[in-house]
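Quick one:
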Amino acid sequence: MEMHQLRYVVALARARNFSRAAELCHVSQPSLSQQVQKLEDELGERLFERTRRDARLTVAGEAFLRRAAAILEEVEAARREISEVQDLKTGTLRLGVLPTIAPYLLPGLMARFGPKYPGLEIIVQEETTAQLTRQVLACDLDLALVSDPLEERGLQTRELFDEELLLALPPNHRLVDRVDISLEDLENERFILMKEGHCLGDQVLSFCHRRDFRPQISFRSAQLETLQALVGAGLGLSLIPEMAVQRAGKDRPVYRGLQGFKPRRKILAVWLKQRTMRRAAREFLEGIRPL
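Output:
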């Protein structure tokens, strides 16, 4: 019994025709027929009932097919494992990350991960959650770090951590010295948010709307650093992820937690459900720790 005979049996069971099965296996039809017959002779049992038009599995053939398919899958899995080991030496990892995560999470993560696999090239794509999930589904990315909620199906997810969204105030704002700040205290304030399509901006608005609060939006931007610079200049308030808080610097915002039910965002890792995650992506995922 040889591996190519198992492949021929599986192909014939799927195609139910010797000519089509031979095409799938890239061999001649007489050669495939001969090898299937040789295997049946060795087993002492017919695997297929043959007619002029098709070939159908016998009861013995159905039992054999399950084992043959499992053996072939194990062999293919072994090949993939070897390939994955080689990938970590010379391959690439295609990683998608939200721009509101990348500058704060990736430096420390890359510092730990990179030296372990110096030959591995990591290609980082920064986009919105919607765009990153579409790229994962199209197999353009191995792994993506995004934020809830997700609209796409067909994705495998793992929650990594969640974090509070802090109120960012100008340094000389009237609320800086307040211990407890609620949404009601912000009724007449101007807000600076991420531009439409960025999940952080949507999350802030969703949090406010669920509490019947309609923020007055004065500016929108695609960069958290720009938002915080505008807040520091006294042009409005914002809600900023905890990981992005500026610890030092002239005219930096002052950060406060909101009273009561606090706004938070959940960070997820996503990958294609129907695709085995490559070892490089698995190793990278296991190394992720919240700040």
